[in-house]
């Protein structure tokens, strides 16, 4: 079918639906529901067989749903209604939830049901759940609804009962540090992550708090700041403490939207002298840290989790230090990746935007992530596996390609391109992407700048394995697969051949040549004040609405096909 996706933003769920519908042979286009645009006119121009709204914060106009079949993806079970469905579920501690695909009509979320899929709701942040359990359920519900609609024989079910719930505003989200328990504080923080955050007063100013993790040892007076760690602050609750990784200053009248930043950086000179309490990467006690290392048999696991998948200069350098320490351990396989959610989205545009000299910070950040990628590419005494529990984009996707094998959870969305941020890219992508998919396919991927599913990436040869499992199970599955890889008789031979392959590469075209060419182009962009990158970065981090739907999304796109024979993992790395 020809399906039109109508969305308030081309967010992670919309991207996944776009990619997976194309995988199944549908032709898909996107129109953004923008304040100054005519959605009705756009839909008429596309003349779709089906309109599908994975993320829509506005009402579908009558002239659209009356003229075209129009399905709404609602992140709640049948009968649940309202704009803050998932927020309420997380804040109230629901253990089960669901996603419903319903037909648009006059009353919001009240239409007939085409599909509904239940899912677990573990005690995690809303944004993590949205990209994990909720996205899995949404995709299953969308595919079922599309299949039923295409059959022409299915009759949707009318909703007999409903529970309308209001917008979850800051009056309900607000934390009472004197009376709220750690559990209550965490649920409020998690329900507001990554948007809108919890509005709070900190050191005499109003801030939005983003993210929350418990600490099982620190204590203090309720609301007191206790310590810092990896850019986060620790704040005491009535019966414990929580780590808050990011803050965003409340916008003052007439000012642009503020930028989310690591909490320590956001507070700056306002922050009193606090102890920095690092956790060694190998620590096993239950406390939060963004980088961990552990070993099981002959396998090392270096896990990392940075808010939003962004990696600042400091975070890249810390991860590189941890990587080097991991490489000093006697293992034959090193697994690089998180337990769940984002793998990486590359350089930290928020930190760059907030810097006194964004060009200089951009340059420092790209060099820091290049150093990390170089370390992975030149590791010759073990196999490195990039384990993608969640999405990866731009330089983060290219970081994964530096590994010997790339394993993806089935729900991953990959965006291995840079063009939409006005960049040519670095992270050795001009070496790693063509060696996996061929020069023509690599050119097409970065030029089209479209999301791809894990299965689509597997078909292109971009990844080596897709792990079919729930978000909560990926770490265990990756561990099992890594243990098997370490035990295979051919692994030692692969490691030896890998070293020889790198020596041959260095003798013909050194990796440093790729880096120098890429960075020369990036340096020109960073230091050109008129380059589109600066305006695009600013619009991205400040959540500015585009003036129109980007042309590459509005254009109907069908299934992705390979342009060249895909080389196997064995052909790439003996």
Automatic annotation (TrEMBL):
InterPro entries: ClpP/crotonase-like_dom_sf, Enoyl-CoA_hydra/iso, Formyl_trans_C, Formyl_transf_N, Formyl_transf_N_sf, Formyl_transferase-like_C_sf, HoxX-like, NiFe-hyd_mat_HypX/HoxX. Residues 544-574 are annotated as: Disordered. Coiled coil: none annotated. Residues 170-250 form the Formyl transferase C-terminal domain. This is Enoyl-CoA hydratase-related protein. Residues 38-131 form the Formyl transferase N-terminal domain. It comes from Streptomyces cynarae. It comes from the Bacteria. Pfam families: ECH_1, Formyl_trans_C, Formyl_trans_N.
């Amino acid at each position: 079918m020809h399906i039109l996706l109508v969305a308030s933003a081309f967010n992670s769920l919309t991207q996944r639906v776009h990619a997976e519908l194309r995988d199944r042979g549908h032709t898909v286009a996107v129109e953004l529901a923008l304040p100054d645009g005519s959605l009705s006119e756009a839909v008429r121009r596309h003349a779709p067989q089906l309109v599908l709204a994975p993320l829509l914060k506005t009402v579908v106009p009558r002239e659209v749903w009356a003229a075209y079949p129009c399905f709404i993806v609602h992140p709640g079970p049948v009968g649940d209604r309202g704009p803050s469905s998932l927020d309420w579920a997380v804040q109230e501690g629901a253990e089960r939830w669901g996603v419903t695909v319903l037909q648009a009509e006059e009353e919001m979320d009240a239409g007939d049901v085409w599909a509904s899929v239940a899912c677990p709701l573990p005690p995690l942040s809303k944004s993590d759940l949205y990209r994990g359990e909720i996205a899995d359920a949404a995709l299953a519900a969308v595919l079922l609804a599309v299949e039923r609609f295409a059959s022409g024989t299915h009759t949707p079910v009318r909703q007999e009962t409903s529970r309308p719930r209001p917008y979850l505003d800051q009056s309900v989200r607000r934390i009472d540090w004197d009376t709220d328990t750690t559990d209550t504080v965490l649920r409020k923080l998690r329900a507001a992550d990554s948007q809108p955050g919890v509005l709070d007063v900190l050191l005499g100013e109003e801030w939005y708090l983003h993210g929350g993790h418990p600490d099982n040892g620190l204590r203090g007076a309720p609301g007191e700041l206790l310590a810092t760690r990896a850019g986060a602050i620790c704040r005491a609750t009535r019966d414990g403490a929580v780590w808050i990784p990011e803050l965003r200053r409340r916008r003052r009248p007439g000012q642009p939207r503020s930028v989310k930043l690591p909490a320590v950086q956001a507070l700056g000179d306002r922050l009193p002298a606090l102890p920095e309490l690092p956790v060694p990467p190998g620590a096993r006690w239950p406390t939060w840290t963004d980088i961990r290392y552990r070993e099981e048999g002959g396998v090392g696991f270096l896990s990392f989790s940075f808010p939003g998948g962004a990696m600042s200069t400091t975070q890249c350098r810390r991860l590189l230090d941890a990587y080097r320490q991991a490489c000093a351990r006697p293992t034959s396989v090193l697994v690089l990746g998180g337990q769940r959610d984002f793998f990486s989205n590359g350089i930290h545009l928020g930190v760059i935007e907030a810097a006194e000299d964004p060009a200089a910070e951009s340059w420092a950040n790209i060099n820091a992530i290049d150093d990390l990628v170089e370390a992975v590419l030149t590791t010759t005494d073990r196999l490195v596996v990039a384990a993608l529990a969640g999405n990866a984009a731009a330089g983060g996707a290219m970081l994964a390609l530096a590994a010997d094998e790339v394993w993806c959870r089935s729900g991953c969305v990959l965006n291995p391109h840079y063009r939409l941020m006005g960049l040519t890219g670095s992270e050795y992508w001009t070496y790693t992407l063509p060696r996996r998919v061929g020069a023509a396919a690599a050119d097409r991927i970065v030029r089209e700048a479209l999301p791809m599913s894990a299965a689509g990436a597997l078909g292109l040869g971009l990844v080596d394995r897709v792990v079919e499992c729930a978000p909560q199970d990926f770490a265990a599955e990756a561990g099992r697969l890594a243990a098997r890889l370490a035990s295979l008789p051919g692994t030692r031979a692969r490691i030896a051949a890998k070293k020889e392959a790198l020596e041959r590469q260095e003798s013909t075209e050194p990796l440093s040549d790729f880096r120098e060419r890429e960075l020369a182009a990036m340096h020109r962009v960073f230091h050109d004040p008129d380059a589109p990158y600066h305006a695009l970065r600013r619009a991205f981090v400040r959540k500015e609405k585009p003036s129109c739907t980007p042309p590459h999304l509005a254009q109907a796109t069908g299934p992705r096909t390979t342009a060249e024979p895909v080389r196997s993992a064995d052909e790439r790395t003996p």
